[in-house]
Amino acid sequence: MTWLLLAEAGVPEGGLFDLDATLPLMAVQVVLLTFLLNALFFRPVGKVVEDREGFISTSRADAKQKLAQVERLEADLAEQLKGARQAVQSVIVDAEQEVDGLYREALAQAEAEANRTKEESRRGIEAERESARAQLKGKVDQLSTTIIDRLLAA
Predict the structure, then answer these.
(1) Does residue 5 lie in a domain region?
(2) Domain range spanning residue 88?
(3) In the chain, at which residue ranges do the beta strands (DSSP E only) sit?
(4) pLDDT string in tens for the chain (154-residue length)
C-alpha cells in the first residue's frame, strides 16, 4: 500500500492535457490499429464491395443486352407472324376461289345433266305419244272398218 501512496505522490497534478509517455503510446496504438483494420477488414470488405459492384454492373449490362435481344426477337416474330397471316389469308382466298370454281363447274354439269335428262324424257314422252297416236289411229281405223263392215252387213 505504501507503493501506491508513493506512486500517487510522485505524479504532479496536470492540466487539461498531460504530455507524458501515454500520448505517443496511444498514437502508436491508433496507427497500428488503423493499419491492422485496414489490412484485415477494410481492404477485404472493400474488395467484396467492388466485386459486388462489378457483378451488378455486368449483370445490368447483360440484362440490357438480353432485353435488346428479346425485343429484336419479338419484332422478328411479329414480322414472321404477320407474314404467316398474310400467307394463310392468301391460301384461304385461293382455296375459296378454287371451291367456287369447282362449285360452278359442278353446278354447270348438274344443270347440263338435268337438261339432257329432261330433253331425253321429253323425247321419250313425245315418242310414246306418237306411238300411242299411231296405235290409236290404227285401232280407230280397224274399229271404223269393223263398224262399217257390220253396218253394211246388217
Answers:
(1) no
(2) 36-153
(3) none
(4) 455 444 455 555 655 666 677 778 888 999 999 999 888 888 888 899 999 999 999 999 999 999 999 999 999 999 999 999 999 999 999 999 999 999 999 999 999 999 999 999 999 999 999 998 888 888 888 888 888 888 887 6
Instruction: Count structural domains, the chain.
Output: 1
Cell output for 63 = 440484362
In sequence order, which ranges of the chain are alpha helices (DSSP H)?
2-9, 22-37, 43-153
Q: Is 102 helix (H, G, I), strand (E, B) or coil?
A: helix
Instruction: Establish if 131 belongs to a structural domain.
Output: yes
Q: What is the DSSP code (8-state) at residue 12? A: P
Using a 10 angstrom Cβ sphere, with 0-12 exposed, 13-18 middle and 19 or more buried, the burial of residue 102 is: exposed
Residues contacting residue 17 through CB under 8 Å, at least 6 positions apart: 23
The answer for residues whose C-beta is within 8 angstroms of residue 23's C-beta and 6 or more apart is: 17
**What is the pTM assigned to this prediction?**
0.45
C-alpha 85/C-alpha 79 separation (Å) is 10
